[in-house]
Amino acid sequence: MFPSIDESSVKSADRHERAAILQIADIKPANPRQRLRLGELLVAQGVLTPAQLEGALNERKRSGRRLGRILVEDGIATEEAIARALAVQLHIPYLELSLQAISPAVSRLLNEAQSRRFRAIPIDEAGSAIRVGMADPLDYQSYDEIQRLLGRHLDLVVVTESRLDATLDRLHSRSDEISGLARELEQEMQIDTADAEEAATGAALDEAPVAKLLQSLFDDAVRSRASDIHVEPQERKLQIRFRIDGMLVVHTEAESRIAPAVVQRLKLSAGLDIAERRLPQDGRFVVRVRGHTLDLRMSTMPTQYGESAVLRLLPHDGGLLELDRLGMPAAILAKVCEFISLAHGMLLVTGPTGSGKTTTLYGALARMNSPDAKIVTVEDPIEYRLPGITQVQVNEKIGLGFSTVLRSTLRQDPDIVLVGEMRDKDTVETGLRAAMTGHMVLSTLHTNDAASTPIRLLDMGAPRYLIATSLRLVLSQRLVRAVCTQCTRPYAPTAQESAFLQAFGGAGDAIAKGAGCPQCKGTGFLGRLGAYELLDMTRSVVAALNSADTQAYMDAAHCEIGQLSLANHVCELVQSGRTTVSEAMRLIGHSHEAG
To answer: Which of 351, 358, 365, 410 has its CA nearest to residue 534?
Structure first.
């Protein structure tokens, strides 16, 4: 309960009187029974101006969004500022949930649905009371309902909504439920493999334990911010791993005999041939998880102990980052924006699978998207949806490949063409010719760095003159794990780490490392950052490429890249405390030479 309020007077009051009693604050409403309003409170605390409040209230009427969400999403006020203002006004503490140890037993006094509905979480016991964090302590109806459900006095603290959601995601992870469903599936299947296949292909698919297990698995993957799910049969167990922030972590282990049922059910969902277990297969399917639509790309591979499956998770409604919010160095961003203003030419974004290449290309596309530009994309799969552009899904099974679609696209009179990937000689040549004949072409290619990209195009059979006349920019990128902002600490590098940083002109005396906290699950990392390098195909680089002397070209390319190298950018991220020196060394490699 609120510290300065007499408990007996609150218990004996009706709901409206209780609301008035709880409004013990510096501001007294004209009507003592009127509910204290968040907007008025924030104006009185100096968090908002009256004009900002009026604008936000008008937006609430128009969109139906909650006032607090409008203030945060429109950048008018931060969640923490709002929460601290509420705490000061109501004379209750503000609590940073990410730094708080929460009792699992106490937190489960409210189930997940109740916690999300009330926007509240039981934290621990405080004497005879239960300490409860609420994102909206002015929601007296929820307060009453929580007190009724818990049957105890409440000791309120204010928390931010984003930290509350993240904490609930962490506490209500479904790994225990998944393990239980795996055991249930084992019991239903008996011992032999035929039963496993029958469990996966039976009549009541949606009610079968295998279907429930997979739905729970997808739900947990979304909670964990996983980009991939790896289903890997081993000799004595089935291992399921998630790739989170680029690193694989073991999520679930179960009896190996359920592996065929799990993979068969996934193959059914993806429309693959369940009788074919000797050859790799690829497919995709769509699922609904936590109110969001996910496109799952699936790849199967026969292994020593059965079929392995890897699923890439692609949210349909994932937010599209603007080009200037991707974290590119200013000099690289300026050159990319300069290219966008041109009428024709090719931009290639290179890097390994999962390095954010498509995100970068769509950031550029969003900037170029206008009513007077015809934009066509050729993709496999379509990862983002942009209004006003024509998007084509490649389907190799019916002969609708990249090169076929690209040739047809050029007959649609496009100004800008995005090709998901330069996979073969025909696609490369068609794309380069389109860039040479008045079209803007954006695409991706798998290479180790920017300098080697033209050499890779030559290896694929592209004519040297086409590369020299069409290719304008090569942007190479990687993703590195970001230091968790909640537990970041100064870090003294080892002698080896200091030498590594000094090789790239950096000092080693102001770097950081995450200590590990509940928010980052003890890893010290939360999220990922882009690291970039850029090769501008200038006259000198093109001349070196045309000379047919590979070493002369590579020397000219590295000279042109100069300070805009991947190594320099990732070391700048280390110097600013945004990633660690160990991440930089993992990305660049111990033997990478400066310059």
So the answer is: 351
Nearest to 266 by CA among 319, 221, 229: 229
Question: What strand order describes the sheet that includes 390-393?
Answer: 390-393, 375-379, 416-419, 440-445, 345-350, 471-483, 525-536
Provide the β-strand partners of residue 130. Answer: 125, 154
Q: How far apart are CA 566 and CA 163, in angstroms?
A: 33
Helix, strand, coil percentages for the chain (3-state, nearest 5) = 45, 25, 35
Q: Residue 152: name the closest of 129, 133, 131, 134 by CA.
A: 129
188: tokens are 């239903």
Q: What's the per-residue H, E or C state across 243-269?
A: EECCEEEEEEEEEHHHHHHHHHHHHHH
Closest CA to 545 of 481, 473, 452: 452
Q: How confident is the model at residue 231 (pLDDT cuts 50, 70, 90)?
A: very high
CA distances (Å), 327 to each of 84, 89, 363, 516, 533, in order?
A: 30, 38, 12, 24, 12
CB-count exposure of residue 4 (10 Å: 0-12, 13-18, 19+)? exposed
How many Cβ atoms sit within 10 Å of the Cβ of residue 546?
Answer: 13
Alpha helices in 348-390 (DSSP H): 357-368
Paired tokens of 373: 């530009």
pLDDT band at 21 (very low <50, low <70, confident <90, very high): very low
Would you say how long the chain is, in residues?
Answer: 595
On the 0-12 / 13-18 / 19+ scale of CB atoms within 10 A, 183 is: middle
The DSSP secondary-structure symbol of 283 reads: E
Measure the CA–CA gap between 544 and 284, rounded to whole angstroms: 44
- For the chain, give the percent of residues with pLDDT over 90: 31
Q: Is the pLDDT of residue 1 over 50?
A: no
Q: Which amino acid does the sequence have at 243?
A: R
Q: How far is CA 197 from CA 180, 238, 257, in A?
A: 20, 16, 11
Residue whose entry in the numeric block shows the structure tokens 């089935």: 238
Which letter does DSSP use for residue 98 in this model? G
The amino acid present at 313, given as its one-letter code, is: L
- Strands 129-134 and 153-158, sheet pairing: parallel
Summarize the confidence of residues 284-311 as an average pLDDT: 89
Q: DSSP string spanning 213-253? A: HHHHHHHHHHHTTEEEEEEEE-SSEEEEEEEETTEEEEEEE
From CA 468, how far away is CA 537, in angstroms rounded? 8
Can you list the domains of the chain with their CATH numbers? 7-36+78-169 (3.30.300.160), 173-315 (3.30.450.90), 323-588 (3.40.50.300)
Residue pair 324/333 in contact by the 8 Å Cβ criterion? yes
Preceding peptide of 381 cis, ω within 30°: yes
292 forms beta bridges with 289
**144 with 15: CB under 8 angstroms?**
yes
